[in-house]
Amino acid sequence: MEEMNLNENKNNGNMADETIEITNATATKKAQKKEASRAERASQLRLTKTFNTINNSVNKAECQEDTSKNSQNNVFDRAQAKSHYMEQVTEGHTEKYISNHASELERNAERLTDAAEGSFKADQKMNAFLNGRKLNELEFMNEIKLYLINYSAKWHFEHVNEKTGEPKRMHFTTIADILKKVLHIAIVKMTAESTRDESKLMYWNPETGLYEESEATLNALARICEECITTGEQHQVIGALKDTVELKTVNDWKDVVTCGNGYFRRGELYDYSHDVVFVSKLATDYNADATECPTINGWNFDNWIENEVCHGDAGKINAFWQIIIRVVRYREQNDVMFWLYSEQGGKGKSTFLDLLINLVGARYTGSLTVKQFAEPFKLASAYNKSLIIGDDNPVNALMGDVEAFKSAVTGGLVNINPKNQKPFSARVQAAIIQASNGFPKFNAYDDGVARRFIPLEFNPTYAKPDKRVQTEYIKDHRVLEYILHEALRLDKNDNFKSLPEVVAAKKEIEENSSPVASFAAECLPEIHSRVVPTEFMFACFQRYLEEENRPKTMTRRTFNQKLNSLIKQGKVKGWESIRNSRLTDWNYDQDRVLLERGNGHYEYNDHEQSGSSKQAKCFIRE
């Protein structure tokens, strides 16, 4: 019995010792696990610090310094990274869970390792790509796109689920912020008077040197940042930019010529900069050495203009050079537009207009006829242009509302209403050139139109232009650079306004446009009496409208005012302004022939007053 008790006590002692050993082992295991957890956290912190140092640097100098400290030979340690992420994905799970989900955890750790390696490599590509430049110093849009591709990859590698490695989506505010880092974006006022609401969201294009408006481009860059971006999120990016970028105003220097390779001012050529806001320019580069007119296969521009187009007429040669000067110096205050006309087509007007388009560039040329200036949607095509060409004006078509056209010619404010956008006011700085076969006809040819309108006949000596001139010679950069150099060298003048052919053409156009002027030119010479009552004159005018098949919409009062105005301006000679006079000197029998023209007969009820002493308002011959 005692022996059994001894054995039992011994066994109990052994069990106690085993219990103590188990307890000690458990405690040791917990301590080891705790220490391992501490070591894991320390390792995680060190690794996180390493990756943050590598991945969060945008400036190349900073990135090179940090990577040299934290990454040996700029090589990604994949084994170390995967070990770290295996600890990360298994943390907090039991051994049984880890054993049952080994493949899934392995896959998640692999994803996280891939993301870390991708971020590391993308960062290296970005640093190599920048090559010491700042983000906003990239010189080409393709460079900006390539940088964003790498930045997007780096961002998506960094922003993943910490357990599964699944990538997250970039928020629209993050996209807006990165776009502001790689581009100079601003709200640009077209005039000093414009409000922010009337202004445009624009970005500075380093390739052109201009601020350009293109939501399509910004949307495309946003999609590079976040491939899965929705249309609504793109609108949110644009909205975030509009709310946060600075406000700038288009440069208003009048003595500047914006050339293809820089802006020319006071004899010097300057590089374009985001600090100086321009929205249009010429396509032709300024070349200080382009002082001689080149000859191509025997063709020479100076000879073409001087001898073939202008027939050696010095005044007309000056007029055509003044057209070119005004196209080149379109930023100066223009006060006229030129209208090239000929009796028939095929004379080469289009060749000269194509020369101007090549000089300016198709991108900065708008196509707009006089009638289209009255259409707000069409007028939007003149916005931000250097040149406006109207080469398809119909012959004898009546030009209606010309108020917007007159304002555009002289740089006044016009209302622009782009489709699907908010209307705004702006000044049209472009030079305006129009062309047609035959004379144009204006519904209201007043002093405002006459002052702005310079008709020039384009009637060269050649029967048919050489096609090579239009297809080859006027596109040659040597010819264009010479023309630009000459346009900057020559003086600007208004001598063309007094050319006899300009004066004669304007008179004919006025008569063709104004039925009153046309009536005065054709019918007043047939009147014999010295005194003619206004009522009789208006009756003659109505008979004239019938003959010309023109609408009789003008009132007698308006007719009297227009004819009186023509007399005062000296455009109708030999007559005095309206005043009261006796009808003694009116011979109705002789003048009634004007009422009997045509097929009908217009009865003038007061003809019995002819020769009487009764007074009435009359037109009186001097």
In short:
It is built from 22 helices and 21 strands. It has 622 residues and is α/β, with parallel strands linked by helices. It is elongated, with a radius of gyration of 42 Å.
For CATH, the homologous superfamily of the domain at 295-510 is named as P-loop containing nucleotide triphosphate hydrolases
Query: So how many helices?
Result: 22
Largest sheet: 5 strands, parallel
Helix- and strand-based class?
alpha/beta
CATH topology term of the domain at 295-510: Rossmann fold
Low-confidence stretches: 1-73, 599-606
Broad CATH class of the domain at 295-510: Alpha Beta
For the record, give the distance between the C-alpha atoms at the N and C termini, rounded to a whole number: 166 Å
Lateral arrangement of strands in the main beta sheet: 11-12-16-10-18
CATH architecture name of the domain at 295-510 = 3-Layer(aba) Sandwich
Overall description:
Keywords: ATP-binding, Nucleotide-binding. Residues 315-471 form the SF3 helicase domain. This protein is an alpha/beta fold. Among the domains are: 295-510, Rossmann fold; 514-621, no CATH class. Helix content is 47%, strand content 14%. The protein contains 22 helices and 21 strands. The strands form 7 sheets. It has a 5-stranded parallel sheet. A 4-stranded mixed sheet has the order 3-2-1-4. Strand 11 (365-367), helix 13 and strand 12 form a beta-alpha-beta unit. The protein is elongated, with a radius of gyration of 42 Å. The termini are far apart. Residues 1-73 and 599-606 have low confidence and may be disordered.
